[in-house]
Amino acid sequence: MALSKEQIAQRIARELKDGYYVNLGIGIPTLVANYIPEGVHVVLQSENGLLGMGPFPFEGEEDPDLINAGKQTITTVQGSSFFDSAMSFGMIRAGKVDLTVLGAMEVSEKGDIANWKIPGKMVKGMGGAMDLVASAKNIIVAMMHTNPKGESKLLPACHLPLTGVGCVKKVVTDLGVLAITEGGFKLLERAPGVSVQEIQSKTAGKLIVEGAVPEMVY
What we know:
Blueprint: H1 5-13, E1 21-24, E2 43-46, E3 50-53, E4 76-82, H2 85-93, E5 99-102, E6 106-108, E7 113-114, H3 129-135, E8 139-142, E9 154-155, E10 170-172, E11 176-181, E12 184-190, H4 196-201, E13 207-208
Parallel strand pairs: 1-2, 1-5, 5-8, 6-9, 8-10, 12-13
Antiparallel strand pairs: 2-3, 3-4, 6-7, 10-11, 11-12
């Protein structure tokens, strides 16, 4: 059974390590803030100028002055701080962010990512994604395995304009967890009830399967 967006976020939250500084991109990645494991203390950074972002607020408790880079209302944690974009991107460009979680429209078997533009559609620009993919120590992509037409989003090469080249380390989709290796996508885990054959059929890029692939725990 394919995972929901919330379950994808839960699985990615297991990648968080104590003491990490983490940037969560727009879309599925923002949900990771709701599933940080007990005993793991991380500092969430939002590129619009916040260090110490908390989970989403409950309905009726939203503060319209507290938003993330995707303009969603958020909460803060004790000790959080606010600053301007120059300092925020100074942190990112200086390599102070340990992990970045991004959404994507396409990922290639070489770790390239396309997540900012679809030709012919109006966009405001790449935003902070360019800096994040160029500077983060570790990038995990959270996305659905296929697009609404049922076409694979894990490709031999990206068709859409690139955001970054060779930067993605791991992809978590609604079907499984895949690492980017020199040989292509290596299947590490599969969603409960999803077969290796289904994942193979929906992965256009080279897929490496070694031995029995365990079901995902999230």
